[in-house]
């Protein structure tokens, strides 16, 4: 029989357990990384559906299958963990550890806090201890027989057998009794001042205003591009303020700074009048403590002494806030670009403070309502700002509903007779995703199974098309869209031209139009319609009233590279454009206007089908590279500064261009202003740009060129 010291055995077992624990922790970290990868892959499934219609069904089914597998894995993992928690009731072996104290036995259903301890009823049995001590009869431990011992411990080892059990139990009872006696000696002091019920001081929510409806309103305050209006009766607001002033003049509450900071809604006194307010913060200024609040009934932010703040009583919380935040719809204030313009806008808007007007709700999806303000003189304030040059239009102004007077319930809208039950149900997945209804399946014979005979069982009597369909049943027809348009022939080398810079896209690249003394199109004979031959005639024809009414919307999502008619948001005019990017998530499309070179994101409803008669004129914008212009560093911020400087010198200006090189679709040029100064040399005055020598390569005799992929 061998004798092993218990401390040595415990050390070996602890080292072994720590090693196994490290392995388990490493596997846990790996599992966390794998779960994170599954989350990232699952979030990318939706973006995989931006594909061709022929691949949509296959990708959708594959993503759903993978998502189901991920769901099964996570469910199995969660069920396994829950099962382990339920069955993990294994008792710890009673081995003495010198580093930890002897744990106390857990009392039966002991309450958590002191209040529950003092108020918990005691059991009615006479054998139970009033201090929740364990029973006198300890639980019998299962001790193995002497002949079944595998390891016999020496008398010098410190084990549980060497300590008498009755002493441990007596010590446990003494410790529990001491704890219970200390808990009984505790006394909980009630607060001297009762805590106010702050939840009862919350105001109810405002009623949602309907879009395309007219409401009587009063402008109360103006804060930059936003302003606050009251759509209810102003006399009702004044009556509420009078009642609050009378109440708080006779009743005053002394509040500490901590109690004030805990308030959400409060009553605020300013100029001997009380308002309902929302507490913002405390401000310490010149040895005085001030309170900053927001008046919910007027929309103003005011500051005053903390003594002016009172708790809001429940009788003043029955009505929602009267002030509503609004902004002018259909216009761009441009106050974020020009501080002087923002000051002019604020001065101009403050002239209309306190007047009664009529507002038409255009957007109620956010906290700030987009409205059209109709002044008493029947003039729309949104249009006045545009005429004054303080804003730019971004949407078509609504003039039909703004001229209608009367309450909202008497205004009849065109969409009132529309039955939602008559809306079509998309059973075809292609039509649901792309908006395109396939037409070729009606002409394809469904009985044809393939084969050399190229016919079905009907033989020559069948007048359907005998072609094999896609195995998944997808449509086979296609829709042709315009993607090709002629470009201007590049001028010869070492020639001079007058150009108009239309767009600066980089610090050394820009788009230009060749300036020609364009004359008006010749008047054709009666009954003959000719396509426009100049850019001026093209723009005039595309934006004529007849052309605007004849534009057709796209039946399917635009393809990359497709030529369309796109609306330019800044001047509300239609131009030729090429689709660069399609974002199905927010229905935005990135287009490049082929006659000007600028790239803009537009909404999907601002795209129309381009009429074929507008494809005959070549693209008027030519991309050019400034000869010898290079950047000294690779810092993107310095590139932006150089691009801004080039746009300031050349944007929308007519310059002289010297052609020094030609590429596949761009020119290498030197630009000079009207005074003969080089644009490149002026640009090199910045520390970011440097000029290098270049050579004019004559390619007049070159017949073939290799275009890099």
TrEMBL record:
Supply the name of the protein.
Tudor domain-containing protein
Q: What is the lineage of its organism?
A: Eukaryota, Metazoa, Ecdysozoa, Arthropoda, Hexapoda
Q: Where is the Tudor domain?
A: 557-617
List, alphabetically, the SMART domains matched.
TUDOR
Q: Where is the C3H1-type domain?
A: 439-469
Is-annotated flag, keyword Zinc?
A: yes
Keywords linked to the UniProt accession? Metal-binding, Zinc, Zinc-finger
Which PROSITE patterns does the annotation name? TUDOR, ZF_C3H1
Q: Where are the zinc fingers (C3H1-type)?
A: 439-469
């Amino acid at each position: 029989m061998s004798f092993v010291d218990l401390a040595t055995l415990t050390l070996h077992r602890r080292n072994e357990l720590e090693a196994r624990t490290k392995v388990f922790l490493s596997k846990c970290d790996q599992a966390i990384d794998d779960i994170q990868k599954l989350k990232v892959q699952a979030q990318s499934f939706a973006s995989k559906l931006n594909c061709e219609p022929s691949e949509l069904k296959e990708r959708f089914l594959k993503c759903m299958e993978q998502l189901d597998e991920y769901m099964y894995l996570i469910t199995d993992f969660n069920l396994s963990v829950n099962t382990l928690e339920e069955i993990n009731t294994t008792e710890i072996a009673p081995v003495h550890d010198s580093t930890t104290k002897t744990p106390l036995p857990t009392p039966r259903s002991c309450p958590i806090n002191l209040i529950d301890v003092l108020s918990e009823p005691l059991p009615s049995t006479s054998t139970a201890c009033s201090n929740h001590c364990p029973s006198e009869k300890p639980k019998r431990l299962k001790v193995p027989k002497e002949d079944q011992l595998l390891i016999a411990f020496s008398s010098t080892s410190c084990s549980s057998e060497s300590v008498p059990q009755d002493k441990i139990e007596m010590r446990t009872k003494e410790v529990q009794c001491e704890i219970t006696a200390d808990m009984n000696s505790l006394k909980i002091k009630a607060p001297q001042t009762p805590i106010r019920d702050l939840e009862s001081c919350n105001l109810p929510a405002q009623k949602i205003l309907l879009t395309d409806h007219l409401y009587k309103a009063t402008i109360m305050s103006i804060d930059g591009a936003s302003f606050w209006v009251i759509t209810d009766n102003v006399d009702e607001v004044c009556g509420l303020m009078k009642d609050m002033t009378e109440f708080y003049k006779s009743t005053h509450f002394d509040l500490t700074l901590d109690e004030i900071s805990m308030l959400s809604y409060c009553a605020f006194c300013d100029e001997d009048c009380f308002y309902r307010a929302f507490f913002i913060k405390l401000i310490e200024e010149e040895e005085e403590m001030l309170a900053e609040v927001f008046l919910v009934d007027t929309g103003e932010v005011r500051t005053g002494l903390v003594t002016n703040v009172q708790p809001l009583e429940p009788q003043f919380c029955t009505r929602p806030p009267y002030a509503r935040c609004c902004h002018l719809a259909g216009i761009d204030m441009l106050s974020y670009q020009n501080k002087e313009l923002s000051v002019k806008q604020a001065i101009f808007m403050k002239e209309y403070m306190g007047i009664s007007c009529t507002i038409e709700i255009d957007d109620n999806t956010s906290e700030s309502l987009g409205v059209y303000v109709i002044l008493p003189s029947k003039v729309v304030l949104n249009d006045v700002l545009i005429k004054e040059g303080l804003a730019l239009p971004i949407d078509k102004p609504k003039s039909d509903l703004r001229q209608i007077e009367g309450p909202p319930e008497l205004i009849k809208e065109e969409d009132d007779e529309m039955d939602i039950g008559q809306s079509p149900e998309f059973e075809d997945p292609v039509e649901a995703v792309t908006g395109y209804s396939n037409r070729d399946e009606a002409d394809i014979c469904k009985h044809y199974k393939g084969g050399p005979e190229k016919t079905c069982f009907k033989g020559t009597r069948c007048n359907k098309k005998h072609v094999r369909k896609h195995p998944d049943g997808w449509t086979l027809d296609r829709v042709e869209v315009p993607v090709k348009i002629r470009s201007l022939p590049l001028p010869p080398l070492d020639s001079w031209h007058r150009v108009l810079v239309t767009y600066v896209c980089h610090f050394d690249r820009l788009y230009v139009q060749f300036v020609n003394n364009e004359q008006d199109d010749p008047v054709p004979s009666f009954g003959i319609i000719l396509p426009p031959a100049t850019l001026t005639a093209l723009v005039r024809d595309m934006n004529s009233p007849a052309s605007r009414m004849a534009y057709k919307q796209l039946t399917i999502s635009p393809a990359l590279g497709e030529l369309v008619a796109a609306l330019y948001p800044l001047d509300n005019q239609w131009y030729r454009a090429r689709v660069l990017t399609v974002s199905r998530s927010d229905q935005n499309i990135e287009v490049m206007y082929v006659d000007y070179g600028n790239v803009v994101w537009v909404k999907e409803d601002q795209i129309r089908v381009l009429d074929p008669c507008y494809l005959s004129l070549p693209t008027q914008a030519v991309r050019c590279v400034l000869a010898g212009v290079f950047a000294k560093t690779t810092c993107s911020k310095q590139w932006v500064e150089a691009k801004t400087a080039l746009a300031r010198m050349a944007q929308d200006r007519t310059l002289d261009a010297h052609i020094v090189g030609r590429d596949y679709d761009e020119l290498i040029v030197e630009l000079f202003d009207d005074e003969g100064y080089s644009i490149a040399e002026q640009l090199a005055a910045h520390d970011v740009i440097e000029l290098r020598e270049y050579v004019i390569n004559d390619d007049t005799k070159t017949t073939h060129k290799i275009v890099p992929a």
